[in-house]
Amino acid sequence: MxxxxxxxxxxxxxxxxxxxxxxxxxxxxxxxxxxQAILAGLAALMPIGISTRIGPxxxxxxxxxxILGRRLVLENADRSYLAFLFAVGALWALITMIIKPHRSVxxxxxxxxxxxxxxxxxxxxxxxxxxxxxxxxxxxxMLVPPGTRPGRGVLRYLIFQTLALPVILLAGWAxxxxxxxxxxQAALARASIFLGLGFAFWLGVFPFYTWIPMLSEESHPxxxxxxxxxxxxxxLMLGLDFLNGxxxxxxxxxxxxxxxxxxxxxxxxxxxxxxxxxxxxxxAAYALILDTGFLLLALSxxxxxxxxxxxxxxxxxxxxxxxxxxxxxxxxxxxxxxxVAGVKGSGVKYPILTAAIALAFLSFTGxxxxxxxAIREPILGExxxxxxxxxxxxxxxxxxxxxxxxxxxxxxxxxxGRDWRSGENWYEGLIFIAGMVLLLGAGLFPAEFFKGILNMxxxxxxxx
Amino acid sequence: xSEWLYIIPVVIxxxxxxxxxxxxxxxxxxxxxxxxxxxxxxxxxxxxxxxLAAVKLIVGLxxxxxxxxxxxxxxxxxxxxxxxxxxxxxxxxxxxxxxxAIVLSVSLGDWFPPAIPLRLGGLILxxxxxxxxxxxxxxxxxxxxxxxxxxxxEVIYAxxxxxxxxxxxxxxxxxxxxxxxxxxxxxxxREDEE
Lengths: 464, 194
Hints:
The structure holds 2 protein chains of 2 kinds.
Chain A: H1 3-20, H2 25-45, E1 52-54, E2 57-59, E3 64-67, E4 70-73, H3 79-99, H4 105-121, E5 122-123, H5 127-143, H6 152-180, H7 185-203, H8 211-218, H9 221-245, H10 247-250, H11 253-275, H12 280-301, H13 304-333, H14 346-349, H15 351-365, H16 373-386, H17 388-412, H18 426-444, H19 446-454
Antiparallel strand pairs in A: 1-2, 3-4, 4-5
Helix pairs in contact in A: 1-2, 1-4, 2-3, 3-4, 3-9, 3-13, 4-5, 4-9, 5-6, 5-9, 6-7, 6-8, 8-9, 8-12, 9-13, 11-12, 11-17, 12-13, 12-16, 12-17, 13-15, 13-16, 13-18, 13-19, 15-17, 15-18, 16-17, 18-19
Chain B: H1 2-5, H2 7-22, H3 26-44, H4 50-70, H5 80-84, H6 87-107, H7 116-135, H8 139-158, H9 164-193
Helix pairs in contact in B: 2-3, 2-6, 2-7, 3-4, 3-8, 4-9, 6-7, 7-8, 8-9
């Protein structure tokens, strides 16, 4: 058996089985969660392409699967990335099972994860863009449940993701030209422009991110959270594959400037817009845009600190997203609307739930004690050595998000004259407390928390 | 001489994209889309063998059939344009965009190596598709626009890359897009009927 069988084909097969069982959301949720947890554990423990023994039995998982004349390759260095991806997938399956957005969500989640893993594993890389597009098409029935009218956000999401496909494929063609004629400056410029534009569409980079808040407002928080959790992760990993594979790209003088300016623009606009939002979901979307800006800034540093902070950032980001999605869905189930005015007083009735939401928001700001503090501090420190103006603007963005968070906190704990009580049921309380402990733990013991995910960088041996 | 023969499908593409842009009749839109795929096949057959080029035609017609079967209400004409975007405005914008595509097809010779008819046909499809997705909020119109953009890209890309697997995967995207269009629009109609 080869690694793609376990981490691509198996989830796809199970997605088909779960589709047949989709009327029983509890069974589909449990099977999906257990399978993904097993696959995450397998990735963490089982070497790929190296002979090992399970008891007396010699075992070796091959790294390559040939399919239709092309290769799917998952190497030993990809294990941390796979373990992280499927662990996060298992957590999303858990909250999907609890919240039950609609019956098709769990099988479609499995299909999407499988396609996204395949998108990074396929050789040559340009086929990955087509697999991503297929994953985007699969996500539409998840975002627009049967019987509902598609909103403008979903349509914009579809448009921007689809526009990325031709541009990325053209970038692949242009890269081949550059490999043949490395001195051709026009070809270099063409390849860079196509690639930059493709990633701008994919990631929702400024000014192409309008669909993110719109989609957040229109779709179910769990479904939207899942999409915004996985797509940017795979896109940025694909981006690192490009940087790792092409020396002229990572040594281009314009790369640092483009990443820095784009990153700071995303932080400033994301943070400032967040301050003025009237709904929690839109505020979360802008917080995510701000966070993506910091990821781009981390990459722009082009040193070991930048790469490590880039990798480490994914843990608090995913935890915060899961907590926010679960928190918003639970608030809705308890009868609250997700507007700032609509959650007034909810902190008095549901203190654990609202504290978890507040902490998840706080984590995006990078304040001390949160998981992102140990990540943002070195990024801003390094950035300040290169450009004090950019650092100030980045801080303005963070301040904007803080203002938005303060508005939410005032709303949560308005009418504090009432009797405090904990209205959450036991499993809601348990999940929110576990999430908060993990987020605070990442802030208090960053070295221990981020140690595992740093191994993800082994996939990119040519990067610092 | 042979290059001029391929100007005919370009003229056909100008006609079909204009019909897709201004037509309020669903049946006419589908017929225009089908003819558009025929013209795309004609253009691609200049650089690929007929067998492989025919894949584009078959896939395109499959997409049209899917949209027609899964979104069968031919009486469901789209009223939105009558209110917001009069035909005159749409014709003027289409004229401007086609003129721009013609200019770009000459000046972007260094960027896209295909011969002028393919480059021109591809750019017209992409530009008109972009206009289509930019001025409407109707799911089915947006899907038609995206299918047009993808067709335009495939015309240009066919002259640069000849890969059976990419052709197969792009075929999956085209059919998937048509299915998504039918899914979104079917829900839309059902809700309206209810």
